Each structure stands twice: as C-alpha cells, then as structure tokens.
Amino acid sequence: MAKFILDLIVKAKVRLSSTYVLIVLTSLEKLPKILPGQFVEVRVDDSPTTFLRRPISVHHVDYQKNELWLLVQVVGDGSKRLSDLNPNERLNVILPLGNGFTLPKNKNDRAMLIGGGCGVAPLLYMGAYLRQNGYNQFDFLLGARKKDDLLQLEEYRKYADVYVTTEDGSYGERGFVTQHPILKEKKIDLIYTCGPTPMMKAVANFAKEVGCECEVSLENTMACGIGACLCCVTDTTDGHVCVCTEGPVFNITKLKW
C-alpha cells in the first residue's frame, strides 16, 4: 500500500479519562485507504525530549466524515504534548503503516475481538470493518483494571455485543479476559487480540487449547515505521523480523511464543 506524509487537522479532542485522550483528525483531501490493525507514526512538535515519531494504532476511520481517530494514552512528554493539541492545529502523520488483521475465511465464522488496556484501540475499527464487509458473527471482549479504565463502550456496542472484565470486579466479570465465561459458552473460530503482552500470550494459549485461529497485534517500540531503525525486531518462525513492516499483526503460528 502507498504511504503518505500528511498534515492532518485536529477536528476534535475528547478527554476520555485522566490518562486517555481521543484525537479526531481530518484532512482537506480524502483520507487514503487504511486497514484495521495498521498504525500511524506521528511527529511530536514542541516537545524538547521527543525526537522520534510515535507509533499509534488506528482507532477508527470514518470515510463519510473523513475522520481518523487516534486513542492516546498519556504516559510521557510526547503523549502529553499530543494530549494538549487543540482543534484546528496540525499533526504531521505518516500513514498507513504495517499489515493489519485479515478477514475471516467464511462469513459464518464466529470471531472474538479481545482487547486490554490501550490495546482495545485497533479493535473498534476492526469491528466497524467487519460489519461493513458483511461479517456479523463476532463479539468484543474488553478487559481493564477497573471500571474507570474502560473506554468508549458505547462505540463498540454500535457493532456487536460487548463483554467486559475488570481485575477489581468494579464492572463486568471479575478477573482477566481469559477467565470470562463467554469464551466457554460460544464456539469461536477466530480471535483478534491486542493488549499487554502477557494478556496476548494468555489469549494465544487459549486459542491453541480450543483449536481456533488467532491474530495478535504486537505493541513493540516502533520508532520509524519502515524497518530502518530495528527497534521493533521480534523472533518468528521466519527469523527475526521488524514488527513495523511484517506486522504489527501476526498469526500466532508465526510467533515463537
């Protein structure tokens, strides 16, 4: 796919919690084709400690409104500067980068989209994309530490049923996503997952146990997005590869987990 360097316009900024901000971007031109699971590299201006671009998952794309959504977790100077952006400011973005999720082989295959923490971000667009392409057999399973960490559940519910776990039991089922009873109640043919590595490894083990396909979106540090800096190398059955160019989405059969 062609890659573009664009100065996108901040259309809106929504503070979802004390640590998460939704940035809605638009363009004077039509946004290029972006697939679910791909990511962007943003340039952080006016941050004296941020020298490299920051990789951010594509949270959602609305082509009717010509909007690109980015979900930003504020953890350092770079993300703090991004969270301070105001409407009509510009954000320089390279997109689309990496390889995304693949569609189910059959329209009747049941998929489960499992996310934890900031890893829920790419699953929203994947849910919308599945619906747009006539796939209706899927659900979301989202995990967080506590109720306040759950984000935009109403957006996910636009596309499918949403099941939730919290580690403290303040909302949904108590525990981790792999402990939710829905995983035993429904036959699952395919899992898409993104989140902390321990969570994804647990989901991958579950997928192996029940014999279903599973794709994971890795969150390695990706400073360049084009395979030049070698920051994001991971070990696979094909050898050491750059996550930013060969992923970030991998079938678990390719990973040495």
Strand content: 25-35%
- How many separate helices? 6
In which order are the strands of the major sheet placed? Answer: 10-9-8-7-11-12-15
Oligomer: single chain
> Which structural class fits the helix and strand makeup?
alpha/beta
What's the shape?
globular
Portion in helices? 10-25%
Low-confidence stretches: none
Please report the distance between the alpha carbons of the first and last residues.
Answer: 29 Å
Secondary structure tally: strands: 15
Radius of gyration: 18 Å
N-to-C SSE string, H for helix and E for strand:
EEEEEHEEHEHEEHEHEEEHE
Mean of residue pLDDT?
Answer: 96
**Biggest sheet layout:** 7 strands, mixed
Overview of this protein structure:
The strands form 3 sheets. The chain has a 7-stranded mixed beta sheet, with helices on both faces. The chain is an alpha/beta fold. Helix content is 18%, strand content 34%. The model has no long low-confidence stretch (mean pLDDT 96). The chain has helices spanning 77-83, 121-132, 153-156, 182-185, 197-210, 243-246, and strands at residues 4-15, 20-26, 39-42, 54-62, 67-73, 90-97, 111-116, 138-144, 162-166, 173-174, 190-194, 213-217, 233-236, 239-242, 249-251. The longest helix is centred in the C-terminal third of the chain and has 14 residues, at 197-210. The two termini are 29 Å apart. The chain is globular, with a radius of gyration of 18 Å.
